[in-house]
Design goal:
With 319 residues, the protein is of the alpha+beta class. The chain has 2 domains: 158 residues, no CATH class; 141 residues, no CATH class. It has 7 helices and 10 strands. The strands form 3 sheets. Strands 3-2-4-5-6-7 form a 6-stranded antiparallel beta sheet. It has a two-stranded antiparallel ribbon with strand order 1-10. β6 and β7 form a beta hairpin.
Length: 319
């Protein structure tokens, strides 16, 4: 009787022989499989398990899912075929595994195909929106260059008061920030170099400091208690933030255009294993018919001298 159903059962047994510290320089390991019994079937299960485990550990498996072969079941016809040593049962088991694997690949193919078709439908509009945002960002950059302050000067308007000293401006900004945190609402507080200054919440307890002229906003996270530091951050938004936004949009547009071109080129590609799947499915169906796999069996029952025939499917045997 074959007593192992997992590859680890064999590995653990052999590990007791091959372990470090064995005083024998050479050992012999024998595995006995009885022909015409369930041994061959169970060994085939172990082989398939080990193949999948090895592929998974090496990262070379083409499929992302597999079926649990621990719950392999047989009907009466398969049991009879195994017990009689019928070679067709081995072919059937191999075809079952191959067809299952190919159908998983086919399912992945169609899932990918739907993703590509979805990309082809949605990416053009998304690219156009990003291009419009890019033009707005470039326009904001040109406006910031035109309205930048002279060297070694500073000016900002907060709550109607114009400040030319960074320290006093930072204190005023902090007061407005505390008020905004308390009320937790959007608040426009002033103007800097032609850009509107406001506090914008984005699901956080502390708002962003935002600069906005057109449709785009350029933000920085404030540092509570650091009056001068917040003014420096605000200045850097115009010096660095707009350029960062432009670069990000350009890279995003390039990625979307590349993805769109790839989707257009591959969305209509055929399933490369279609012919193999069709041939193996046809052969598997032929073997199932020859072995009477999946057919119901008629069992005659006699009750009070009345003979009744009922259709009963063979019970499942878990190995």
């Amino acid at each position: 009787m074959f007593r192992w159903s997992r590859s680890t059962d064999l590995e653990q047994r052999n590990g007791r022989i091959l372990r470090q510290g064995n005083t024998f320089k050479q050992v012999e390991i024998y595995n006995y499989v009885t022909e015409g019994t369930f041994d061959a079937y169970m060994m085939n299960i172990i082989v398939n398990k080990q193949k999948f485990i090895s592929q998974l550990m090496s990262g070379k498996t083409p499929a992302r899912t597999c079926e649990d072969v621990d719950e392999a079941v047989l009907n009466y016809s398969e049991i009879q075929a195994i017990a009689s040593g019928d070679p067709r049962i081995k072919e059937k088991i191999e075809l079952d595994n191959d067809v299952s694997r190919l159908r998983i690949l086919e399912s992945e193919y169609y899932s990918k195909k739907y993703e590509l078709e979805d990309s082809v439908a949605k990416l053009p509009a998304r690219i156009e929106r990003k291009k419009a945002s890019l033009e707005n960002a470039k326009s904001d950059k040109a406006f910031a260059e035109t309205n930048k302050l002279p060297e070694n000067t500073f000016a900002i308007t907060i709550d109607g008061t114009k400040y030319t000293e960074r320290k006093s401006a930072g204190a005023a900004l902090s007061r407005e920030l505390v008020s905004a945190v308390a009320k937790k609402e959007y608040k426009e507080i002033g103007e800097y170099c032609g850009f509107k200054v406001s506090f914008t919440f984005s699901g956080l307890s502390i708002p962003y400091i935002s600069l906005k002229k057109g449709s785009l906003s350029y933000t920085t996270a404030p540092d509570l208690g650091n009056d001068l530091g917040n003014i420096v951050r605000l200045e850097n938004v115009l010096k660095l933030g707009i350029d960062k936004t432009i670069k990000s949009l350009e890279e995003s547009i390039a990625r979307d255009e590349r993805d769109l071109n790839e989707a257009l080129a591959t969305k209509d590609a055929p399933f490369e294993y279609a012919e193999e799947l069709a041939k193996k499915s046809a052969r598997l169906e032929q073997l199932n018919n020859e072995l009477d796999v999946g057919k119901t069996e008629e069992i005659a029952l006699t009750d009070d001298n009345d003979e009744q025939k009922i259709d009963r499917k063979p019970p499942k045997h878990n190995l």
